[in-house]
Amino acid sequence: AQSVTQPDIHITVSEGASLELRCNYSYGATPYLFWYVQSPGQGLQLLLKYFSGDTLVQGIKGFEAEFKRSQSSFNLRKPSVHWSDAAEYFCAALTGNQFYFGTGTSLTVIP
Amino acid sequence: DADVTQTPRNRITKTGKRIMLECSQTKGHDRMYWYRQDPGLGLRLIYYSFDVKDINKGEISDGYSVSRQAQAKFSLSLESAIPNQTALYFCATSDLAGNEQFFGPGTRLTVL
Question: Is the Cβ pair B33, A101 closer than 8 Å?
């Protein structure tokens, strides 16, 4: 079945530490891939997207993601987390005109 | 002004009531979507529309209906609300290429 998997339901990191959020997809062909962030009480905001080409994509707020075809992964990274990064993060895939979302990873940032 | 707006932002209703959630957009996009978000389940697609005359069921359309009144407006109805429809509902839009979605702020619906 087609799916987007985010294996980590919740992650806690210290401010200033590095961050990696995992995302795996299961589709026959490489879908378009996205990372969204949802702050409390807000809608979803696009962080970055991958369609083709360079497998390392840069996004807003200092985030980047790397597409690895061999691992069917599209992990989100940030070298140094800020307290304002605390939010819910969703990985999504676009295939066949529909978007499919992962279940989300909740990020807590501790001082 | 926000590009995608949803009304109401919060709604509490009782079982069996008819509820309509409205979405308007100023982005000029043809494609519009309704999702529901539940804790631990992420976003699930309810309905989507690629133009005014096009309506498609998503993953979880049972118990819901939609109306695309104009390019800019896409409404979601719960004909007879039930408690397990308590959720956060999001409207989204995308252009013809469909390569990115833009989300509204969400409507929190509680069915008692």
Answer: no
